[in-house]
Amino acid sequence: MISKSEIQRHLTASIPLYVFDIIDSTNSFAKKLEEDFALVVADCQSSGRGRLGREFYSPKGSGIYFTLKVKNENLYQNVPFITTLASVAVHQAVKTLCNTDCGIKWVNDIYINNKKVSGILCEIVDETHAVIGIGINFYKSALPENLKNIATSLFDDTSPVTREELIAYVADNLFRLLSKLPDTSFMEYYKSNSIVLGKKVLCITGEQSFEATATDITPQGALVVQAADGMRTLSSGEITLRFS
Ligand code: BTN
């Protein structure tokens, strides 16, 4: 179970807080809310959603699943930054609060030892509202076959911090970074904690896939790669790291 009062005890931001034992998806719920700002948390999701229409495995008791609904007057200009800023907020929290070494895989996954520990799904609600959905594998759980070799967790079965503390810490971090926009100095942190720069990657953009070396991240958060036929800049899509 996730304790609402424990989140509230640690949270600095004063916003409506919804906590569920189970919900279809915290992003789907947050998108329907009337409020400009809200935090939606669940102990389990029956239809957790990932990027590119994928499912996000969300078992009970071991993970963190939450969504921050935010209002931003310059949403369209800020969308690329909201995505990268969210990974900076999670990375800083995992490093500082959980004292665990991790890296950011473009565009906004958090990795520990070459395995994914957290994923982020940002969705636009309307001209001025967005939801930022964050999933973190907190404790070890029995993973389905397709995730066994690619996912990991922050802790095994005990932890020096609680799930509630981490949720509050990340949410406050998100607010802090969002309130500084259009200051995007967090991009320096993003770049210096990237695990893709200098690495061989498989790029998948729509129907196309090609091998390349990741060389840079633009100030807007796009990935610059050196492919066989020249430099390309990817503003969306997906990459797979070639760990070898
Ligand atoms: C990804 O890795 O593809 C993104 C995963 C995002 C998962 C989170 S869990 C909380 C929120 N609710 C959802 O349905 N998805 C996001």
Structure description:
The protein has a 7-stranded mixed beta sheet. A 5-stranded antiparallel beta sheet has the order 11-10-9-8-12, with no helix packed on it. The longest helix is centred in the middle third of the chain and has 22 residues, at 75-96. The protein contains 5 helices and 12 strands. A hairpin with a 5-residue loop joins strand 9 and strand 10. It has helices at residues 4-10, 26-31, 75-96, 163-180, 186-192, and strands at residues 17-20, 38-42, 63-71, 103-105, 109-112, 115-124, 129-137, 200-205, 208-217, 223-227, 230-234, 238-241. With 244 residues, it is an alpha+beta fold. Helix 3 runs antiparallel to helix 4.
Mean pLDDT, to the nearest integer, reads 95
Shape: globular
Bound molecules: biotin
- What does the radius of gyration come to? 17 Å
Counted beta strands: 12
Biggest pleated-sheet summary: 7 strands, mixed
Distance between the termini: 40 Å
**Proportion of β residues?**
25-35%
Detail the poorly predicted runs.
none
Describe the strand arrangement of the main beta sheet, using strand numbers: 1-2-3-7-6-5-4
Helix content: 10-25%
Structural class comes to alpha+beta
Order of helices and strands: HEHEEHEEEEHHEEEEE
The number of helical runs is 5
SSE inventory with pairings:
Blueprint: H1 4-10, E1 17-20, H2 26-31, E2 38-42, E3 63-71, H3 75-96, E4 103-105, E5 109-112, E6 115-124, E7 129-137, H4 163-180, H5 186-192, E8 200-205, E9 208-217, E10 223-227, E11 230-234, E12 238-241
Parallel strand pairs: 1-2
Antiparallel strand pairs: 2-3, 3-7, 4-5, 5-6, 6-7, 8-9, 8-12, 9-10, 10-11
Helix pairs in contact: 1-4, 3-4, 3-5
Bound molecules: biotin (BTN).
Biotin binds at residues 25-27, 45, 48-51, 54, 56, 65-67, 109, 119-121, 133-135.
